[in-house]
Amino acid sequence: MGRLQLQIIIGLVLAIATIWLVAQVGGNEESRMARAETARHATAVENGAALYETHCSECHGVRGEGVGQLGPPLNDEAFFTTRLSEVGWLDTLESYIIATVTHGRLVATVPLYAGDGVAAVMAPWAIEYGGPLRDDEIRDVTAFVLNWEATALGEVELTQVEAPVSSASDPQAITRGEEQFVTSCGECHTVEGVSSGELAPDLTEINAVVPTHNPELDAEGYIRVSVLVPNAHYVEGYEPGQTEATCGAILSEQQLDEVVTFLLAQ
Ligand code: HEC
Ligand code: HEC
Q: For residue 258, what are the CA distances in angstroms to 163, 172, 197?
């Protein structure tokens, strides 16, 4: 073999080795970036889940299923398919969620959630509008909501878990609800034979008064709203200025359920 041929062969081998090396490094770089992006997204969803639990679940449901008249479902097929065109939003669902959460929803788009105009339908969440959340937190909670797409569209099969016994059929729940009521509500409210608070309306006959106080809600929905959105409705004689006391208690979902069960059983 002549020198020239040898040089050509060595040259070729070097060139191939270089191309191979570049491809390796480039590929690794790409998958490293992909991995970093996946990890970043996972962290955002995780932070978002915690924020959602604290700030959103009481109205939109722990699993995004919506809560009666308090808030619409978000883990929902229509939300992921037709909602944007329904409201005329031309950008992405992500930007829609960020915008809605940032600014709040001051006017209901669905009559069910209209409230009585006293309270903002959904108050703004961004710090710059008086809410508690930073912009990065709003992006994280949005990532968490968007993460429901697959279940909302029925693309993943969820394993059926046995439904918990409804509190209404559990006498223990009524007893626990009564104890919770005495602790969290009794200092202001009277229920005959249970508590004798005088700062707020007597709730002994709450089942009977709901239709006159708010014909749009059933008794259960009305009691939940009274606790979760204290200024959604004022009973006559208890408007702001006439009393310092406001209804509104921090209870877990189960505690609230049991208090409601107790009151409905009166
Ligand atoms: C006090 C109850 C309440 C809380 C808490 C609440 N929301 Fe809402 N949310 C509502 C209501 C009511 C609407 C508006 C329904 C309508 O347009 O008629 C709404 C609307 C929305 C919408 C638009 C839904 C649609 O179909 O257009 C999104 C997205 C949303 N909320 C996300 C959140 C997130 C995220 C949080 C937590 C940071 C949160 N909400 C906390 C009550 C609430
Ligand atoms: C610090 C005092 C206070 C506490 C504690 C309190 N409330 Fe109230 N509640 C009020 C006041 C004042 C009103 C009347 C003003 C209004 O309608 O918002 C009211 C109104 C209500 C109403 C509407 C009554 C009607 O006649 O329409 C219900 C239902 C209610 N509260 C349930 C509860 C429950 C359940 C708890 C405990 C989890 C609770 N409240 C804790 C002060 C309180």
A: 16, 9, 20
Provide the token pair at 144. 């968490």
The angle formed by the CA atoms of residues 36, 40 and 46, to the nearest 5 degrees, is 145
Convert the pLDDT of each residue in 87-142 to its tens digit. Answer: 888 889 999 999 999 988 877 787 777 666 556 688 889 998 889 999 999 999 99
Q: Is 61 in the pocket of ligand 1 (CB under 6 A)?
A: no
Q: How far apart are CA 192 and CA 196, in angstroms?
A: 7
Distance 227 CA to ligand 1 centre (A): 18
Give the pLDDT band of residue 55 (cuts 50, 70, 90).
Answer: very high
CA distance 245 to 222: 18
**pLDDT tens readout for residues 173-204:** 899 999 999 999 999 999 999 999 998 999 99
Radius of gyration of the chain (CA): 28
